[in-house]
Amino acid sequence: MKLNYFGLLALFLITLSSIQAQKISGPMLGYVEHRTARVWYQLKPGSRIQLEYWSLAEPGMRKKAFPEVTQRYDFLLVTYDLVALEPGQEYAYELVDHKNKSIPGSAGRFRTQQYWKWRNPAPDFSFLAGSCHYGNDPAYDRPGKPYGTDSPIFQYMAAEPASFMLWLGDSWYTREADYQSKWGLWYRAAHSRAYPKTGDLFRSMGHVGIWDDHDYGPNNEGLAYHLKEESREVFKAFMPNPSCGYRGEGIYTKLTYYDVDLFLLDNRTWRSADRMRDSVGGKPNPEKKMLGAQQMEWLKNSLLNSYQPFKIIVNGSQNLNQYTTNDSWMQYPSELTELLEFIQLHKISGVIFLSGDKHNSEILALKRENAYPLYDITLSSLTAGVSKFRGAEINNPQRVAGMSLEEHNYGRLSVSGPEKNRVLKVEFVDVNGQTRKQWGISENELRYSNR
């Protein structure tokens, strides 16, 4: 039987629809190493597809990636491990179905890290960072003006020649209709991942991240959250980090990108209630903790084992703000003092804090006796509502002069310069891709005088 033009067109559209229906969202490129990379997708349950990848130098030599599959309810998440890569090379990938047909919209490219150690100076590179992405969902949002802003910020981020994006928490916002059920936690993360304007960003560079309260559960929640184990499973399935906590607890991890170490903290799993008293009997309350003993031991030892010129401690909450009434590690003085005294005792150089959460951006400095200042770089908000500085924070004496911004923005962090004189540059970039504020510091300004 012959098919006319319209019959052929209908058959083509049915076939195309069938192929497209297998992919719900993605790709999102994860952490890219020297010889490995990760790529994430959400697929339709029952999909019969695989990921193939190849070097652009040898396009005929395709390999099959190794899938790590998570299926919960009707959510199917797959993170593919691409292995046996070569350093400093460009690769391409795509999903193919069981008939070896390409899945539209599933392809991407990336470049592995250069193998520079003992061979060449550390390469110059940049990465992006930001927090607080609210994707509107009117049926479950509060009435009135939408809390999420529909701006071109993600398009400008996608156009950056950055190596990766570091999500600083509140990457999605659970609602009251979400965080009382396990299914609701999965729904909210999946809804955020499918936000159409992030698609180009997800495929254009690698992605790693931490959480804060809103992508963990209810506002300001911590160790008492009754669905914390399920929330961890959601985070693992949607954020393809290199690792996730220890012994099945927490989400903290460490990654190295050229000559920068990033220590990604978990500020929720072991967090005492914010309302617990900071001090008892005039002394810091040792029971009030943000990281907990297990994570603190890991962080201390990881810092001692780091020899990079910049050691960036990444936390969902601000760390060093002495003048805020909002979230700050300073409100957990016993634990924070323990860490700061440890850094001082062992004269650990190059430590910088990086945080999100506040819905405004700033750089704060904590001056120390006989030691370099500690800086806390805060980057927020991407699309969620903007907050104005209030009270003592309006003229916060800790703030680095001119380094604050009360509008939607993201951070561009660049590392450059010769060996022994590397410089970290921080830029606050607005929704139109324009640099609004910038600040830089040399590794030599983050050293103890006798080292």
Find the structural class using helix and strand composition. Answer: alpha+beta
Biggest sheet overview: 7 strands, mixed
Helix content: 10-25%
Topology pattern, helix = H, strand = E:
HEEEEEEEEEHEHHEHEEEEHEHEEEEEEE
The percent range for strand residues is: 25-35%
> Uncertain runs with pLDDT below 50, 5 residues or more?
5-20
Please state how the strands of the largest beta sheet are arranged side by side. Answer: 12-13-16-17-19-18-20
Describe this structure in words.
This protein is an alpha+beta fold. It has helices spanning about 5-20, 155-160, 180-195, 200-205, 230-240, 295-305, 335-345, and strands at about 25-30, 35-45, 50-55, 65, 65-70, 75-80, 90-95, 110, 125-130, 165-170, 205-210, 255, 260-265, 280, 285, 310-315, 350-355, 360-370, 370-380, 400-405, 410-415, 425-430, 435-440. The strands form 5 sheets. A 7-stranded mixed sheet has the order 12-13-16-17-19-18-20, covered by helices on one side. It has a 6-stranded mixed sheet with strand order 11-10-9-21-22-23. Strands 1-2-6-5 form a 4-stranded antiparallel sheet. The radius of gyration is 23 Å and the shape is globular. It starts with a helix and ends in a 9-residue tail after the last strand. Residues about 5-20 have low confidence and may be disordered.
